[in-house]
Design a protein that fits this description.
alpha/beta; D-Maltodextrin-Binding Protein, domain 2; 4 domains; six-stranded mixed sheet; 40% helix; multifunctional enzyme; EC 5.4.99.5; EC 4.2.1.51
Length: 391
């Protein structure tokens, strides 16, 4: 069969709609008690061909987008996070089941990831080694067609993106139960990088070991935050085991694979990567355990329609200074999601405030509020305006 040529105008939606209607009629005609298996499989095979054909057509149109933009320097120049967020929100808005929103978003993310990789795969730095939750966040946000670059520390992720050795970076910034990762915030005090996205990842912790027997365990390795997230379970089930903090959960898994009396707390991905068996899981103390990650880049992107802005505000040392910063936001009805202070590194007892607010810096009312905030603060730096995480 000859390949269908890329249409010069719109795709042939009516033909696809007619086929879908025909498939629906065939399903409706089937007996509700016992449908004919051969007919059902034939319908699925036909749908698979249509899906594959439409994905190929989408990839061709994505290639046309690259041509329309002209010759650009690298894959990073083709990537537009605000556009991806808009596409994924429409996926959620259209969804009528039976598949859940999260499943459909994941499928469309992978399609977009593969289409973008036609130009060149994005290079994404993350806190490694392989098998960390940071790597899972990379896959959730950029899809599996992006090239992950495992790095030794959060500081190194910042450095590699700033040096253009990585197109973007993904770093953890806060956990729903344990709070903020201070080392990430501190990097923004000196780094020129921008925040251009966020990822919310449900984190499920598992106890892993080489033997798979809990009675063998005398010590448990994990990242300090993961040990804290599972402290209740550990007190109840391994009260005598030594708890040893390491740089990452993947590093914990790497150590645990070398001894029968050692275990690691990590995700299931780490078990597959390092050949460990699951003793128990999930073992986190809170069922809603979620970590928020930031996507680091080198530029500010346009509004997506549902955005968040992160600010770094240096306060003048005078009465009511913080009120003068927050009041213009409140007066304009701008929601503040988070505020946290950190030593400013510019002088003794001087502090900077990290503030997350709703909206994009290029749009009112936030744009107008920030102009007034600047009059009351020593300095205001926009760390980034970026799409709110889509699931």
């Amino acid at each position: 069969m000859a390949k269908r040529k890329l249409p010069a105008g719109k795709t042939k939606k009516p033909a696809v709609a007619k086929k879908a209607a025909s498939n629906k009629r065939a399903v409706d005609k089937a007996s509700p008690d016992k449908p004919d298996l051969a007919e059902v499989r034939a319908q699925i095979d036909g749908l698979d061909r249509q899906i594959q054909q439409l994905i190929a057509e989408r990839a061709q149109w994505a290639h046309q987008v690259g041509k329309a933009k002209g010759k650009l320097a690298a894959a990073v120049d083709y990537y537009r996070p605000e556009r991806e967020a808009q596409v994924l929100r429409r996926v959620v808005d259209r969804n009528e089941g039976p598949l859940g929103d999260e499943t459909l978003v994941r499928l469309f993310r992978e399609i977009m990831s593969a289409c973008l990789a036609q130009q060149e795969p994005l290079k994404i730095g993350y806190l490694g080694p392989e098998g960390t939750f940071s790597q899972q966040a990379v896959h959730k946000h950029f899809g599996h067609s992006a090239k992950g670059l495992p790095l030794a520390s959060i500081e190194e992720v910042f450095q590699e993106v700033a040096a253009k050795h990585a197109d973007f970076g993904v770093v953890p910034v806060e956990n729903s139960g344990q709070g903020t990762i201070q080392s990430t915030l501190d990097m923004f005090l000196t780094s020129p990088l921008m925040i251009c996205g966020e990822v919310e990842l449900r984190v499920h912790q598992h106890l892993l070991s080489r033997t798979g027997r809990i009675e063998d365990i005398e010590r448990v390795y994990s990242h300090p935050m993961s040990l804290a997230q599972c402290s209740g379970w550990l007190r109840q089930n391994l009260p005598r085991a030594e708890k040893i903090a390491v740089s990452s959960n993947a590093e914990a898994a790497r150590r645990a694979r070398n001894a029968d009396d050692a275990a690691a707390i990590a995700g299931e991905t780490a078990a597959h990567v390092y050949g460990l068996k699951t003793i128990a899981g999930p073992i986190e103390d809170r069922s809603d355990n979620t970590t928020r990650f930031l996507v680091l880049g080198r530029e500010l992107f346009p509004p997506s329609g549902h955005d968040r802005t992160s600010l770094l505000v240096f306060i003048r040392d005078r009465p009511g200074a913080l009120y003068g910063v927050l009041e213009p936001l409140a007066r304009r009805g701008i929601s503040m999601n988070r505020i946290e202070s950190r030593p400013a590194h510019g002088g003794l007892w001087q502090y900077a405030f990290f503030i997350d607010v709703a909206g994009h810096v290029d749009e009112s009312p936030l744009r107008d509020a920030l102009a007034e905030v600047g009059e009351n603060a020593g300095d205001v730096r926009v760390l980034g305006s970026y799409p709110v995480a889509v699931l």
